[in-house]
Amino acid sequence: MISFTGRGRIPEIGSGLFCFALILGFVLTAGDRLEAHSDTENLPADVENGGMEFSPGFKQVPVDTLLYEESVYPVSRLSQPVVIDADWDKEPWSDIRPLYLGNHMGDDPDHRPDVHAKVAYDSEAIYVIFHVQDQYVRCVVEEHHGPVWTDSCVEFFFTPETETEGYFNLETNCIGTALFSYQNRDEGIRSRISESDFESVDIAHSVSGVVDPEITDPVTWTLEYRIPFELIARYTEMDHPAPGVEWKANFYKIADNSSHPHWLTWAPVDHPEPNFHLPEFFGRLQFR
């Protein structure tokens, strides 16, 4: 509601016309402002990139493509398989909009990595790629199913079947070491994905080798993987992705044992302490 106050008085004659002109001018001005902010070329620098400088090669996208109402992300169908090599800028990723990990758990971290992810699928697998602008990077876990969350780590939790509360959690540090499990909440059972089964997951990462001591300078890293539907179906029933199908999911960034720990999320999680294992707060993946 807009109100005008002051000592002046609009003359009674023509006051209706004056008010109409005033309102029309306000609407036109607002329209110009909206048009001016419809793309990133006209945005102020602190709005265009969130106040952060993107690393060379990072393809900026309009701000309105980074955030999705009610944590809903449209998953594009691929016309052909993707080569898994952790290249954020290659096709088809270059044409797919990212989601943004804009929420956090616990206290507001003094170091907040800039984390984006993209998801796609074909008839045989789901594909995920992360782009992380990070700092204080530490990565020492090399054993399968080790405590990767203590390192600089990204995580994908997902429920591929709508009639269950069970979910998968794939947690991967920046050198590609993974912890992959299926949590059967209906029966209270956790199943680790065996190393032999995990061999069917193609994974690539831009950081090689143990990172110790911690890298305190800014560093950008990427991680990409392909999860076959055949593997998922070994552990639970699955709504096979197709146009109109939805999965529930969340994406996380963590670094428990770094000098600047943080717990970032895509879909917001309403819990007093950091805890990613809360599928009731998952967002939605909508397959197209």
Kindly state the number of beta strands: 16
Give the helix/strand class. Answer: mainly beta
Helix content: 10-25%
What amount of the residues lies in strands?
A: 25-35%
| Shape field | globular
Described by strand count, sense and barrel closure, the largest sheet is: 14 strands, mixed
Q: Whole-number radius of gyration?
A: 23 Å
Residue runs with pLDDT of under 50 for 5 or more positions: 1-68
SSE topology string? HHEEEEEEEEEEHEEEHEEE
Mean pLDDT: 81
> Could you tell me how far the N terminus lies from the C terminus, measured between alpha carbons in angstroms?
40 Å
Number of helical regions: 4
Summarize the structure.
This protein has 288 residues and is mainly beta. 12% of the residues lie in helices and 32% in strands.
Tags for this model:
single chain; 288 residues; mainly beta; 14-stranded mixed sheet; two-stranded antiparallel ribbon; 4 helices; disordered N terminus
Can you give a write-up of this model?
The radius of gyration is 23 Å and the shape is globular. The two termini are about 40 Å apart. The strands form 2 sheets. Strands 1, 2, 3, 4, 5, 7, 8, 9, 10, 11, 13, 14, 15 and 16 form a 14-stranded mixed beta sheet that branches. A two-stranded antiparallel ribbon has the order 6-12. The chain is mainly β and about 290 residues long. The chain contains 4 helices and 16 strands. β7 and β8 form a beta hairpin.
